[in-house]
Write a structure and sequence with these properties.
By secondary structure, the chain is mainly beta. It has helices spanning about 75-85, 230-240, 295-300, 340-350, and strands at about 5, 25-35, 35-45, 50-55, 65, 110, 115, 130-135, 140-155, 155-160, 160-165, 170-175, 190-195, 205-210, 225-230, 245-255, 270, 275-280, 285, 290, 315-320, 325-330. Strands 8, 9, 10, 11, 12, 13, 14, 15, 16, 17 and 18 form an eleven-stranded mixed β-sheet that branches.
Amino acid sequence: MVRYNKLIIMLLCFITAAAYALPPMETVRVRQVGPGVVERTIEAPSEPWVIHVLEVDLDDPHLRVEAVDGGGLRGPSVMAREEETPGTRLVGTVNGDFFSASGQTTNHGVVDGEIVKLETYSSDPKVYWPALGIDAQQKLHIGCHRYEGEVRIAGDPHRLDGINADPGEDALILYNRFYADSADISGGTRILLQPVGEWYVNDTVYALMEGWFEGEERQIPAGKAVLSGKGAAGEYLEARYARGDTVKLLQALLAFEDLSIRGVSYDYLSSNPRIKHLIGGYPTLVREGKNVALRAYACEGGVGSFAADLHPRTAVGFNRDTSTMYLTVVDGRQPHSRGIHLPDLADVMI
């Protein structure tokens, strides 16, 4: 089986916009890089731009589209080498999401059904950034997402306050293999969980309580998780713990797509299908076939000239029936390609 892995950055989807006339462009190279995957190199000499496009047939049974955790500031080539396994071949990767100097990404992230982190909000009121979700059937979904979580033990519910987050008083937090150092999960009540089946977002996962988690290992075992509670949340766990009993977990990322006002609107709040992978970007470029780059940039919290400046850019989009995905990279800050601003990038995606 051929596996197609990658991380993604800018997103496609949303409404209104001015029309921008693209310069003359020429396709200078076309090559098949794998089953269902075609690479095109396009040049616009008057700008100049060099644009690389991977056209991916999502209906090809030999392909899988996945997100990969950067684990800090690793480059795509490093991650590509690490992700190749016997029986699979990596045919394309791109960077995804924005990140801090420490390598921490800003948006929600999901890898193989496990939440890596939840979105870091830098404004009040919160401004949510869009993300690309890949469901269990390899279908793509783009939108903004709000997290909700719940745990049920012995039929009794409790809010799941966060994933891989700093523990707070009276907070119930779930930790998994993506948490940097399990030794930091100190204090409170901690239970090691083994899922029955696969991890998913937007679906109930059943897990067995294997025992108390002592935190002696520096890393949580792959596939397992630690449920940690302090204060009232710790008392909830203590009172209901029984080795071998079942815990029900629901980690939901509810989607909405309303840019009618700056900030958050829940007019279209809904649950996507079961998410296996999700990676963020910013801003939305296209909605219903229309260029909305500038409006989305403002509504999603953009300030300054980032949208209008020339930069290297990465974008992802898909056609109307989500059967084909387009990964687009525009070279920048080089003599042969100086970069592109967001309205032109949106037109390229259209």
